[in-house]
Every structure is written in structure tokens, then in C-alpha cells.
Amino acid sequence: MTRKTKNKIKENIVGYTLIFPLLLSLTVFTIYPLLLALFQSFFKDLTIKKYMNYDWGTFGFDNYIHAFQDESFWKSLRLTFTYTAISVPLILTLSFVAAYFLSKEFKGVKVFRILYYLPCLIPGIVSAIIYKYMYAGDAYGFFNSLFYTLGIRNFPADAAIAFFDSEQEAVAMISFISMGLFGIGGSSPFWIAGFKSIPKSYYEAAEIDGISRPRIFFKITIPMMSKYIFFQVISAFIAAFQVGQGVLQFSATGGKNGNLTFLGLTIYNSTQSVGGYNFGYASALSYILFVIIAGLSIILFRYNKFVYYEGDN
Amino acid sequence: MRGITNMDSYISNPHFQPKEMHIKPHSVYKEFAMKAFRIFLYCLPVIIFIFPFMVLITRSFFSYEESVGYTEGLGLFPKVWTLESYKEAFGNEEIRNGLLTGLKNTMIIVVCNVIGVPLTAFMSAYAFTKIKFKFRKVIFTVALGTIMIPGILLMIPVYQIFWKMGWTNTILPLTIPCFFGGGILNIFMIMQFIRSIPKEIDEAAILDGANLPTRMFGLTLPLIKPIIIYLMVTCFFGAWNDFAGPLMYIKSTAPESFTLNLYIYYEYLSETSLVTMRPNVQMVFGVLMMIPMFVIFVIFQKHLVAGLTFGAVKE
């Protein structure tokens, strides 16, 4: 055995030893469940009890056919798309701009950074209660009483706005998206790190050349941040598409007339008593969701070629 | 005019103005307006962001009657500031025990997360960047592709696996997986950092006769400390706050495995809890859970920002 192959074998052994935990968890917790869920999705009315007892029923595309014929499925798909299309660009832009201001070193900026991040520090279970109180549909919820106090609406002539449980889809959706606005400070450490990584020499050169401030922002800051932006866009899209179970904390039924029933929630409901503990159907829906996310991600990855990488990558 | 491209700053500088002339060009007013606008812009969102936090703190000082009853006006501040909710939360022996059990379990999970995830992620990232083993690229691409898989898809089969292994109703599903790979996105981030370290440093170490563990932990790890700290802090937040995970694996029949979150939920927030709907006490628990996160955030705020600078090593 030549020394070269000996070294190569050694490299292989070392490499695989190091990533062995990752490989194990990938196989056991990702690949295997993926295949298992795919398998389960082809069986109609498959509950967990039936699965454990090997009473699986017939093999067929029933679940998928039923999904495409079900009106509530299409509604939830539409809601999910609308939500993602609106909230992701909106919240990303706002958090980007906010973090840009926070990245400048002015007096008291440290306090501002903490303040912006504050809503994200509130633990999840309690924050749901707080938001529920703020967006409560009766006259004593915080926003409603604020409107009354400020005189925007009159009590009792104008009814209180039911935010999440509104009959109107638009109101419910807007309320839900507006809740995301509280979290725009959440990614601020990430953005600020990015802003600080842009070498000051670029800005100095631009200033000497007399380039206007907006132009500097668009031609220097944003391209240098493209790495960070790309990462955030992908993560945000994938996360927004999977919104589902969290909605239940704010509206017990997923909104009136299913106004807030996103695809993730439909899937979750299928696994609960509402949907008859139907894991097969839930798996089928999840796979449809997976295909959609994968397709959009591949399209988004094409934009990777616009990202400016410094150094060899 | 090569030298001076901005006449305004030239004119407005009193040093260059003739003694009789102190002209303030338009840009000075514009700058002042910009500054005022900027201050306004900063403060406005702060008021919005502070709302949830204020609600949390002030409501914990409400008396029970006030928190459930309907109040006139905004209902933001209590008419009577009282500590009764705090007394109720901490005065009760049973609650104290429950909180301590919850704290113990949560700390175990947190420690496993904070140590296991960065460690295994770093090891995997090092392998992907520095060690040329076969199928390296394929494995990495497949692993990266898994972020597209909806969590819900994997949830049920994973639960079935844990159920078959008998790990349900314990905290094992929340601790052991931390030591197995540590999140592909984290690995990706660490890889970016490792790549920014010049190859020469490594080659010098090899020449000096350092073996792999020494190079990995003695050389590379300290150089990428910022991202490791960022990862540790993020894992702390994630583990401390994690609710869906414990909720899925630990049912209410196994109170010895409750995490802090879960204990508060089962005792106070779910429909089956005995003492429900005491909003002021709920807020007390919220404040309690928030304090460690707040402290860690303030301490590590500087590191959090510094940690994410791609190519931090260049400076």
C-alpha cells in the first residue's frame, strides 16, 4: 500500500469518526422518519393505534386525492401562501432597517439594542398570554381599550375588534402578521454583526468620492450583506410556511371560519381528535408541504449566485 | 474641482468664513431635521416593543380581583400595587418543590444543549472543512437539504421511535440528541468561520508536529471562539424556552420529569390545571423565567454581535 492510499484511508477513518454522531442522528431522526412518514401517507384512516397493531388498511393514494378535493385544504394553502408572501418580506425589511440603525455607535445604542430585543426575551408560554390579552376581542383587551380611550372608536357604538377571531379574513391575517412585528429585534444581533463586518475602508472610500448616502446604502451596504440576507430569507421562508400549531395559542379554533388555519395547523389538527387522529392524512399533507417548500427553496437557491462571498468558498 | 466636493461643509465651517459672514447653509437645518427624525424613529418602536414587557411586569403586581375583573381605561397599571401574586407563587411549599424539580430538569437539559450542540457541531464542521473524506460533499448537501423538511413531518415518526425505546415521559429525548450532530445550520455557520482561518496556521502546526486533536481543540477552536459563544447562548435560549419538545414527550402523568416551562404550564396554564386563570401569578412565572435569559443576554450582548462577523479572524 502506498503512503498516499494509506493517508487517504486514514483521512476517511478520521473524517467518518468525527461526523459519526451527525450521520447517526441524520439516519435515525431524519431519513428513517422521512421514509416512515412517506409509507404511512399511503394508508387511509391510519391512526397510531392501528399502526402499532399492524392494521394498516389498503395501500392507495386516497389521502392525496382527498387532500386535493378538500376545500379546507385549498383554503389553508392559500392562507399559508398569503401569510408567507406578506410577512416574510415585511418583517425581514423592517428588521434589516431597524438593525441598520442599531448598528451605528451612538450614545445609548446599547440600551436601544436591549429594548429592541426585549419582546423576544419573554418566555414563550407567557408571551402567548400577553399577546392574547393585548389582542383580546372584547372591549377590555389592551388594543381595543386603547382605541376607545384615544377616541378612534366610540364605546359602545362601535363594536370591539375581534382580532384573531374576526369574521373577516383580512383582519385576522393582519392581526396575526402584526404580532410578528414585535419580533423584528430578534434577528438584530445577526444583522448588526453583518453590518459591522463591512470594512470601514469601503465607506471611507465612498465618502471621499462624494457618493450620496442612499447610494452608499444600496451599492455598498446591501451587497456586502448579501450573505446574511440570503441566509435569513431562506430561513424565514421555510419557517413561515410551517406556521401552524402556534396559532392555537391565540385562537382556540384556528380563527372563525378557519381564517387562521394555515397548512401547518391543518396537519396538526389531523393528528388530534378534530381530524380523527389520522396520521396517514397528516403525513400526506406534510409531504405536500415538503414538496412546496423544497420547490421554493430550490428556486431561491438560484439567487445564491448573486451572493458575494469574500475569500475562497 | 478635485479637492473639495462638498461646498457646504466648507462654507459652514466658521474657520473659513470671513468674519462678517456666518452663513448656515441649508444642510445644517436638514441635518438637524434628520437628527430629530432619527430620534423619533428610534423611540417610536421602542414604545411598541416595550408594551409586552410592561404588561408582563405590571400585571404581576395586580391583585387577583383586578387582573380578572374588567377595569376602566387602559388597564395597564394596577390601581393597587401588591405583592400578593409573588407571595402566592413562592409561599406555597408544593409550588416551591415543583419549581425546584422543574429547575433541576431544565438545567440538565440546558447544560446538555449548551455543551453538546456546539461541541458536536464544531467537530462535524471541522471534519467537513479540513478533512477530505470520501462523499464529503454529497453528505453535506444532503444534510443541508434536510432543513427544508417540515418539522411536523418528522414529529410523529420520531415520537414513535422514542416510544419504542421507552424514552417517553423522561427528559432523555431532550438531552441525548444534543450530542449527535448539533444542527446543520450551526455546522454551516461554523464552517464559514473555520474557512476564514488562513491555511498557513494549520500547516505551521502540522510542521511543529501537532496531532489532530491538538490542532482541532488547541488551535482552531480558540480562533473561532466568537461563533462558539454565539452558539452556546442561542442554545441556552432555545433550551430554556423550549416548550413544544417537552410537551410532546412528557405527559402530565410524569411530574418528576417536568421542565420549568412544563411545570408552569401544567400547574397554571392548561385547562386541566387545578389553579387556572390567575393571570397575575402567571405573569409572576413569566418574570421568573425571563430573568435568567435577560441576564445572559445583557452579559453576552457584546459577544453575540461580535460572534457573527464572518471573517472575524481577518482583523
Summarize the structure.
Chain A has 313 residues and is an all-alpha fold.
Task: Write structural notes for this entry.
The complex is a heterodimer of chains A (313) and B (315). The model of chain A has no long low-confidence stretch (mean pLDDT 81). Chain A contains 15 helices and no strands. Helices cover 66% and strands 0% of the residues of chain A. Chain B is mainly α and 315 residues long. Chain B is flat and about 75 Å long. At the A-B interface, helix 1, helix 2, helix 6, helix 7 and helix 8 of A face helix 2, helix 5, helix 6, helix 7 and helix 9 of B.
Summing up helix and strand content along with how strands pair, one would put the structural category of chain A as mainly alpha
What is the largest interface, and how many residues per chain?
A-B, 90 and 92 residues
The secondary-structure element order of chain A is HHHHHHHHHHHHHHH
Q: Runs of chain B with pLDDT <50, length 5+? A: 310-315
Main beta sheet of chain B: strand number and arrangement? none
Number of strands of chain A: 0
What is the count of β-strands of chain B?
0
Strand content of chain B: under 5%
Helix content of chain A: 55-70%
What is the ordering of alpha helices and beta strands of chain B? HHHHHHHHHHHHHHH
Structural class of chain B: mainly alpha
Alpha carbon gap, first and last residue of chain B: 36 Å
> What Rg of chain A, in angstroms, do the CA atoms define?
25 Å
Q: Name the poorly predicted regions of chain A.
A: none
What are the SSEs and their pairings?
The complex is a heterodimer of chains A (313) and B (315).
Chain A: H1 3-18, H2 20-40, H3 48-52, H4 62-69, H5 71-103, H6 109-121, H7 124-134, H8 142-150, H9 169-180, H10 188-196, H11 200-209, H12 213-224, H13 226-241, H14 263-270, H15 279-301
Helix pairs in contact in A: 5-10, 5-13, 5-14, 13-15, 14-15
Chain B: H1 7-12, H2 26-59, H3 64-68, H4 84-91, H5 93-130, H6 136-145, H7 151-165, H8 172-175, H9 184-195, H10 199-207, H11 212-223, H12 225-241, H13 244-249, H14 260-269, H15 279-307
Helix pairs in contact in B: 4-15, 5-9, 5-12, 5-14, 12-15
